[in-house]
Structure prediction request, 336 residues.
Amino acid sequence: MFGAPPFSEGRAFHEGFALEYRRLGKTELKASVLGFGCAQIASMSTTYPRREVTATLRAALEQSVNFFDTADIYGQGDSERLLGEIVCGRREDAIICTKAGLTLGTPQLALRLLKPFVNPLMRSWGRGRDTAVRLRKSSERQCFDPAYIRRRIEGSLRRLKTDYIDLFLLHNPPPEVLEQGELFGMLERLRQNGILRHYGISCRALQEARLSLRVEGVSCLQLDFNLCAGADADDFLRQAMEQDVGIIAREVFGGGVILKNPAVKRVVDTTEGRRTPAEMALKWVQRQPAVGVIVVGMSCRRHLKSNIAALESTALSEMEVEALSKLRPLALEFGS
Prediction:
């Protein structure tokens, strides 16, 4: 059923780029260190028109980015639908990670029909994206009933036009869900039946990520990790690496906070223009050996090209690492 992992661990060369691949924890999945975040590719507030988003997804595959992170609720399901169209006929070239457990209210689902008309207006409205995100979060609920999760997985398979999911994650479950043996028993059965290759947990906070390490069968965890993270996050990464649990890092720019931090910009100035704040942030996370994939939202080819170039630039120097290490409390304070 499964295609062979498309790339060997190490590097693949394409159009001048040398993409790095890392094995995700104890799995056999060898993922591009740059993961394509699909949260915004088909939402009400997607910044770029569909033709540019589609071209960006295709360019990512052509440039050997093979990890795509989505969820059943992203874009009211349209994120999975669009991704399914793009990987159709090239399923073996993509590692698809999707999630379930969050639900949207009926008004949000109804908006899918209005999206083609509303999206152009949202793009022209400066605060459109922030407003759309707030509306979505206000309507979010959670459901981790095994029967519900099973139905959502079946829906994801239809939208993605595939008969298996490479990596399925529970979408930010509360701690009490981690003790539901019936839920994880169901996921294990789906894994044994070939519907899921692997399963894991998307974690809202570091405390929940620590608890998730104790769950038998979990092979990967997704969580925020960036320059704002402190020593407790470093300890967690060491523990995850010892247990051979794959880590998928998100929010590497801290919601834009890190990119605007004047202290980070001062470190950038020491490179005499050779790096940008975004490159610094990406290189900091990339140097963590426990991190298998860095998920970054991308909606245009320009963003894709700059992120690939940043991750394939020279490693941070000892001076840069030392300077950024001293900033971490400052970055955390700036983002609080």
